[in-house]
Amino acid sequence: MTGGYLAFLGVALLVILTPGQDTALTISRSIGGGRRGGVFVALGVATGQLVWTVAAGAGLSALLLASEPAFLVLRYAGAAYLIFLGGLALRDAVRGVPPVPPGEWPKSGAAVCYRDGLLSNLGNAKVAVFFTSLLPQFAQSFPAMVMLGVTFAAITLAWLGLYAVVVARLGDVLRRPRVRRALDAVTGSVLALLGIRVALD
């Protein structure tokens, strides 16, 4: 294992372990859909990172960043989606959501959770900037960039999956109506504020 790869792992861990919109979304879906909900969000996020890896390696993300209108569209679309997800969580906090019995899968399903994770990551303009600026510093060839991107996505999947497991373990507590509504209010506010921050940043 080369020193460059170790340096990349250090940077990757610092970025991944810092809570952000993907973490908030994973927690939100883990509350409503249990461990499976959070894991499928994590899978969607990891898939989005792999897409950005290929785009960075092929030079597509650099072209996107060079085009200000395209970059702004991506940024505002991602911000709008975060605000939309936050609004849904805030709506659930106000209305209250019937608890999902242990062992049952909520109506949202795996596909919705996976989609939310994927679109959250693909719509995050900062991820495009991050992969475009980070990967070339540690790898010059396309295969090497892909290897780094796969490493980053795998660590992300493991970390967000851990969030899903921990939240699911607290399921009995989190299924209490008052606790669920409070958590929906917090995660909804966080997602909406992150969306506003992305739009204004």
TrEMBL record:
Name by which UniProt lists this protein: LysE family translocator
Residue spans crossing the bilayer: 40-65, 72-90, 144-170
Domain of life, source organism: Bacteria
Keyword Transmembrane helix: yes
Any Pfam family: LysE
Keyword Cell membrane: yes
InterPro entries xrefs: LeuE-type
Membrane topology: Multi-pass membrane protein
Compartment list: Cell membrane
Keywords, comma-separated and alphabetical: Cell membrane, Membrane, Transmembrane, Transmembrane helix
